[in-house]
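Kindly go through one protein, given below as sequence and tokens. The question is how this chain folds according to its tokens.

***
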Amino acid sequence: MLTSSRLDGRLDEVPRPRELHPLHVKTVLKDLDFKQEKEVGPPVITEVCARPVSKGPAVVDVKWAGGHPGLAYRIIAHRKTQKGRTERVIVDDVSDGSQLMLLPGIDAQYRLLVAVIGKEGEETAQGAIIPSADDIVSEEKVFRTLPYVNCISLRFDPAYCHKAVAVTSSREEVMHRKCKLANLHDTYTPATSRRLDDLEGAMADNPFPNLPHMYWECVIHFHIISRLDDSKLVCDIGVCKVGMEDACGLVCDNPKAYCCYLVNRGRFITLEFWNGPNQEILARSINVADLDRENEKTLRLGFYLDLNKKVFAVINPAASTVLAQFNVKFTSLVWVIGLYCPEQVYATVKNVCVTNVPTVVAKLVTKVQGAAANVRQ
């Protein structure tokens, strides 16, 4: 045994460890990097949203919840083709809770699964992931892709327009000849026959074809050049029963038309809506320009029409919202517009190409599909 004469009688001077307070112990344990084992449950598909397209593959937005941060997922969509074959589309290594899928089937029924493809013991920043014994797969979700939206191109017929309305050489744009700001160098000469006489406007060269899910857009530009009295019209745009285009001096007073129109209400230019067969101005109105602050504005509007299901809607493409919806009573319609107050307002209406179909059109298509299904039942 080793002894030390220097420590004899001095044991009280030997340093001893202090007692750890429980709070200190908890703090130390919290700072230690323990690996946590977590069992991953199956993901839950929360939403399958089909997006409207006019060509190419169907586009579907898939969203799901559950699982564990950092997991990788596999999305499987499959269907039976008309020949009885199983067609599968698989997207691997998806880390977020949503994914856009491109599917070849248009207006087709699919079955969808979302599966976790993380391996046993795979380590992430949050710890080790231990898959359960069963496959980590969501419940099967059945959905249907949308049919194509028919994006149509409209042209104005210079032979049918009012003599005071000019149609450009492209036949896409119209303006009033009496407005001092109108550039008439690239326009057709005034019509001498078959023209509109009462309505100072223009109409399309052909009625709408008998197609489902038609969509088109136009751009309206107006510039207030002098005082515009209250309740004075700038323009009106809509659809009318074929043969009744000239039955009234205003589209927004025609009993066979459905339209939207721009009108001065106090100091605001507002967008309002007319249901001709019901002789009704819809309750909704939208202020588009404050004349105390601006005297010029450009609007882009979209229009949806399904003659088979008799649905017509006015759409805001930028916000992807339905501004007004009508249940039409006629099977043959034509595109018609009117231009007014040329001494006070310079206004043009131009049919433009559709670059992207607004997502809200999917709701209109789905409603039409649902109505058709109810009729079949």
Q: What stands out?
A: DSSP finds two helices and 25 strands in the chain. Residues 123-133, 371-377 have pLDDT under 50 and may be disordered. The radius of gyration is 33 Å. The helical segments are 22-31, 361-376.
